[in-house]
């Protein structure tokens, strides 16, 4: 009887210890349900779950404003990505739910990226795209006003007549539209661009201020004619409401996966050396504010 009692007590203690070790963490997908942010957010949630140390809740509303609204209501530890394009979209709607008031110390990682203009191999050439009078369909995602600003700047600078086509379901849909020849060019992030290049596409131009990964810059080509040709954006990976010890454990786990060849996150960023893990708070704020400006369409 005593043995049975001790066994029961031991089992209860084991369960209690296991529960005590488990940490409730919410991972929120702030992007669409088809894009790169969804895939990476899900990968982060899976990595945390696989450790058996954390109890993870993955939320994917498929809308940045709805996602941020839920994040603001979450009191437990929460991990999420936030991009300048989401912020710009929220500001354009005057929607406070979709505007982040982030603390620099909560930012775990920052990716500085630029949009790429990609087309099918054998399609229009680099010079075709900027040839005076050229008229191509250019697909892009939200916020539509921001990307249309870039298309308008291209048309004004190079005397082209390109037509912007909005796909509200995200970069994945834009890339698919280009591969299916619904549009001639797609405006894509580096990760999205890598995906379509693997399927038979080529990226002719970047919207950085200078050549990126061998892809020439439209802004440089124009000799800085129009700031609307700059499509630089920031993606922040944010950890809110964490105690310092748990936050460091989570960062170490994700950073290890990110830097280990063959690991999920490493595969997503293969060949894309854009991530900064130790960026100073002042640089985070400065670069974020610049990206907001160049991604905001004039009223």
Structural class: alpha/beta
Rg: 22 Å
What is the CATH topology classification name of the largest domain? D-Maltodextrin-Binding Protein, domain 2
What is the CATH-assigned architecture of the largest domain?
Answer: 3-Layer(aba) Sandwich
Low-pLDDT regions: 4-21
CATH top-level class of the largest domain: Alpha Beta
Average pLDDT confidence is: 86
Got a strand count? 11
Q: What proportion strand?
A: 15-25%
How many domains make up the 3D coordinates? 2
N-to-C CA distance: 79 Å
Compressed to H and E, one letter per element, the order equals HEHEHEHEEHEHEHEHEHEHHEH
Write a concise keyword list for the protein shown above.
alpha/beta; single chain; globular; 2 domains; D-Maltodextrin-Binding Protein, domain 2; 11 strands; five-stranded mixed β-sheet; 299 residues
Descriptive report:
The protein is an alpha/beta fold and 299 residues long. The protein folds into two domains: 2-113 and 232-294, D-Maltodextrin-Binding Protein, domain 2, CATH 3.40.190; 116-229, D-Maltodextrin-Binding Protein, domain 2 (3-Layer(aba) Sandwich). It has twelve helices and eleven strands. It has helices at 2-21, 36-50, 64-73, 84-92, 126-129, 144-158, 171-179, 190-197, 218-221, 244-259, 264-268, 281-294, and strands at residues 23-28, 54-59, 78-83, 107-114, 116-120, 137-140, 163-166, 185-188, 201-206, 232-240, 275-276. It has a six-stranded mixed β-sheet with strand order 2-1-3-10-4-11, sandwiched between helices. Strands 7-6-8-5-9 form a five-stranded mixed β-sheet, sandwiched between helices. It is globular. Residues 4-21 have low confidence and may be disordered.
